[in-house]
Design a protein that fits this description.
The complex is a heterodimer of chains A (about 575) and B (about 240).
Chain A: H1 3-26, H2 31-52, H3 60-64, H4 67-90, H5 102-108, H6 115-140, H7 151-181, H8 186-211, H9 223-234, H10 239-242, H11 244-254, H12 258-281, H13 287-305, H14 329-341, H15 347-366, H16 370-394, H17 399-402, H18 406-409, H19 416-445, H20 453-484, H21 486-492, H22 500-573, H23 576-579
Chain B: E1 2-11, E2 14-24, E3 29-33, H1 40-47, E4 55-60, E5 63-64, H2 69-74, E6 76-79, H3 91-101, H4 107-117, H5 133-145, E7 151-155, H6 163-178, E8 182-186, H7 190-196, E9 199-204, E10 207-213, H8 214-221, H9 230-238
Parallel strand pairs in B: 3-8, 3-9, 6-7, 7-8
Antiparallel strand pairs in B: 1-2, 1-4, 4-5, 9-10
Helix pairs in contact in B: 3-5, 8-9
The chains are: A mainly alpha (about 575), B alpha/beta (about 240).
Chain lengths: ~575, ~240
């Protein structure tokens, strides 16, 4: 690498890093980022750094890990690494591409820079950037009870492991590209790869199993016994010959003290350097794939910024239902957003899913498979809870994903409240449908548990009717936050945004959402309890329960109505150009 | 008919548009020109009801945009410089969606000649991601014209169009004007405005510095040259600077 070019590329990297840091610091002038940064740093400090600074003996997690388990951690870590590497050779992938940004491609590819210099630049940049990942892993793994004596040793250890893996993956993609260039198709490679995998995993597995006696009850009696058995397994068959190289890589991460760390670091760095040289000398054409990769990343980023978690495929989507030319405009938004959610979310798919669930539950019932019914009921309940608590957060095909089209939406001859409600209809419909199918499964599977018919039907029915209201209330909150704090939402919802300030903003947002939901549910709960206790003396508990349920629906409905109207007003006055002005 | 009275838009301490008044009658095409940052797009966005003006009144097709927004918007089509389309809707589905919003009965019959005129009839099942920029622009225009609007506003409508597309676009604008639509056209392509517009409004730093028919503006800033083109007029009117 010529020094002049090297200096220029170093300048680019340093100025990019400085610019990134400066922009991050500069935006702390805005209260929203400052508050976010303070909360984010406090969270990181109290949950991670305070623990990292403790000695291993002082760490509760370290104390919790049995000694027998600690002794086989290196073997398990090396075996995991071996498995990752084996899988990387098999998983289908396209041509090799290095992760250049679009700007780097525009400026560096046509510049008079040697290809090898570009590879150096990219690899060193990647290894540099991986130090942040290593830092993150150091903080997270502080609770894992790893034997590393100090945080910096663990950080360097993580960097070596992640860096070696990254280089290995790049080298693999280069080898695959070379094979493709020689006419070996992706399918042929996968078949060959599967054969190699079968040999690489199957042969050692069979070898190990034949060499190792089957576990007895004594082998499975407690963690120490299991640890001893695993240790014996990892020392059986061919594994002692396969694991030493991966063990070299994980050794610095697991070194107990500085005396063990330094001798472990040298061989690990040599393995890493060997990978670096391997990539460097794998002279394949990476330019086209790098350009494609950069474009793909830019599209993905644009999709994220637009509020969508998936990028657009060229696959055409069938209309979820026939949209007539006249009728309520809200239906047009339901239709549009169902389309955007994908072909899985159509009324027909919902009916098919319900039929499958009902058929399956009835079959389990007729076959008297009580264990199966209990399992179905448990899984359906978990699904229901996830849908009710996290569904509105995840189903973002409403105003949150359409804010980028606010310019056009505002020219439509439709009232603000109608538009907001129309936008919310698709997530409400989809989440309710999933919840209803889960409730159907619970109701049918509960038959096996001898639950009274009244409870088995009335319970799911009551929850089922409440579900759209509960989802709608949460969606009002999420869309309200998006309209009141559009700049915050742009940052918080964008997976590409990182940093203490963004972490803090996410925590503030999550807390705000939970608080608002609690405040929204409180009036309904109080009104329902009052109704129940007052009327049960007059009408009995059953009628009182029904009345209380109706009160819940009424209060939630009123809150949603007020919320949607307020959001409509807000959207009418919404001025994206002002809101997003720095 | 577009009537704008005393329109102002202030962002914090920055005044983007100041006390702007003008009218565009049916059949007229008003060219909105000005240097970068003059407030053209802000003006268009405020007149289209996208951003609320700080002060002022806007009437579209006889309806006040703030007291009768739905009636006013039913008469309007606004075309942004960057076509804003829904990622997951095909060309056909875009038209279906817009037809429902504007209650356009039997929209397929209306859409067919429109798509043929814009030369995208063969791309009915394409998603926006599969269309070129020019094609996207045409789709946005087809969606805007589907409900036969009386008021049309174009913000840099020719960006991304090929020469033939530009020619067709010009013809299309003139055809709508002849049919009685009131049109505002914002563009930096002064020769285009010269060919299409009956009137011109020059903005600078958010203020109106010239407004009238092309002949009137030319007479005022043409330095007595009968054949002064709009470019010369523009440079003289704005003093040749942005600020």
């Amino acid at each position: 690498m010529r020094l002049g070019i090297a200096g220029t590329l170093l300048y680019l990297r340093l100025t990019t890093a400085t610019g990134w840091l400066t922009s991050r610091l500069r935006r702390l002038k805005q209260p929203k980022y400052l508050v976010g940064a303070v909360i984010g740093i406090a969270y990181i400090y109290f949950f991670f750094i305070a623990r990292v600074s403790q000695s291993p003996a002082g760490r509760p997690a370290a104390a919790a890990m049995p000694k027998e388990l600690l002794s086989i951690v290196p073997e398990i870590a090396a075996a995991s690494l071996l498995l990752l590497i084996a899988l990387n050779w098999i998983v289908p992938r396209g041509r090799a591409g290095l992760a250049f940004s679009e700007a780097e491609i525009a400026f560096l590819f046509p510049a008079p820079i040697a290809r090898r210099t570009l590879i150096h630049y990219r690899l060193l940049s990647t290894l540099g950037a991986l130090s942040l990942t290593a830092l993150f892993m150091t903080l997270v793994s502080s609770r894992w009870g790893l034997p590393s004596a100090t945080a910096w040793m663990r950080g360097v250890g993580w960097w070596v492991v992640i860096g070696t893996l990254s280089l290995h993956f790049t080298a693999t993609s280069f080898v695959v590209t070379r094979l493709l260039d020689r006419g070996v198709s992706s399918i042929a490679r996968s078949i060959a790869g599967l054969g190699v995998l079968a040999l690489a995993i199957g042969v050692p597995l069979v070898w190990t199993l034949t060499a190792l006696p089957a576990p007895t009850q004594q082998d499975l009696a407690g963690v120490p016994a299991v640890a001893r058995y695993v240790e014996a397994a990892l020392q059986s068959g061919p594994l002692p010959w396969l694991l030493p190289l991966p063990k070299l890589t994980v050794a610095p991460l697991l070194a107990a003290d500085a005396r063990a760390f330094l001798p472990a670091l040298v061989p690990a760095l040599l393995v890493l350097a060997a990978h670096y040289v391997w990539v460097l000398f794998s002279a394949v054409s990476f330019e086209e794939a790098s350009i494609a990769k950069a474009e793909k990343r830019a599209v993905r980023l644009a999709a994220f910024r637009g509020g969508s978690l998936r990028t657009i495929s060229a696959k055409k989507l069938r209309d979820p239902f026939r949209l007539r030319d006249t009728g309520r405009p809200e239906t047009a938004f339901l239709w549009k957003n169902l389309l955007a959610m994908g072909r899985l979310f159509s009324p027909r798919s919902g009916l098919v899913a319900a039929a499958i669930v009902a058929g399956g539950c009835l079959w389990l019932s007729s076959a008297e498979l009580r264990g199966g019914q209990a399992l179905v009921a448990t899984v359906a309940t978990v699904v229901l809870v996830i849908v009710l608590l996290f569904g509105p957060q995840l189903a973002r095909h409403d105003l949150r994903s359409d804010l980028k089209n606010a310019d056009i939406l505002k020219t439509y001859p439709i009232g603000g409240a109608q538009l907001v409600f129309g936008e919310m209809l698709a997530p409400i419909a989809v989440l309710s449908a999933i919840a209803w199918i889960a409730l159907l499964a619970v109701a049918l599977a509960a038959a096996a548990q001898n639950v009274p018919v009244l409870v088995r039907i009335a319970g799911p029915l009551a929850i089922g009717v409440c579900t759209p209201f509960f989802c709608a209330l949460q969606l009002v909150i999420h869309n309200g936050l998006a309209l009141v704090f559009p700049a915050w939402v742009q940052t918080v919802a964008n997976p590409g945004e990182h940093g203490f300030d963004v972490l803090g903003q996410r925590l503030v947002f999550l807390s705000g959402q939970i608080l608002l939901l609690a405040l929204g549910l409180l009036p309904a709960l109080i009104a329902a309890l009052l109704t129940f206790f007052v009327t049960r003396w007059i009408a009995g508990p059953l009628a009182a329960g029904v009345l209380a349920w109706l009160v819940v629906l009424t209060v939630l409905g009123a809150e949603i109505w007020v919320g949607v109207r307020w959001l409509g007003e807000r959207f009418t006055r919404f001025d994206l150009s002002s809101e997003l002005r720095p | 008919m577009i009537e704008v009275t005393g329109l102002s838009k202030v962002f914090g301490e920055f005044t983007a548009v100041r006390d702007l008044s003008f009218a565009v009658r049916p059949g007229e095409v008003l060219g909105l020109v000005g240097p970068n940052g003059a407030g053209k797009t802000t003006t268009l966005r405020a007149i289209a009801g996208i951003i609320p003006p700080t002060t002022g009144q806007v009437r579209l097709a006889g309806h006040d945009l703030f007291t009768e927004p739905l009636q006013a918007k039913r008469a309007l089509a606004f075309f942004t410089d960057e076509p804003r389309l829904f990622d997951y809707l095909t060309v056909r589905q875009h038209l279906n969606f817009v037809a429902r919003l504007y209650a356009v009965a039997d929209h397929e019959t209306i859409a067919r000649p429109l798509l043929e005129e814009l030369e995208i009839a063969d791309r009915l099942d394409s998603l926006p991601a599969e269309l070129s920029r020019g094609m996207k622009q045409k789709l946005a225009i087809a969606c805007g014209l589907l409900h036969a609007p009386q008021v049309l506003m174009f913000d840099e409508p020719l960006t991304g169009l090929d020469p033939l597309g530009i020619r067709r676009m010009k013809d299309s604008i003139l055809k709508r004007a002849r049919a009685g639509a009131a049109i505002i056209l914002s563009s930096h392509l002064l020769h285009l405005l010269e060919e299409v517009c009956s009137h011109v409004l020059i903005l600078k730093r958010g203020e109106k510095i010239a407004h009238g028919t092309l002949a009137e503006v030319r007479a005022r800033f043409g330095n007595g040259e009968a054949n002064a083109n709009l470019e010369d007029v523009f440079i003289r009117a704005t003093g040749g600077t942005e600020r």
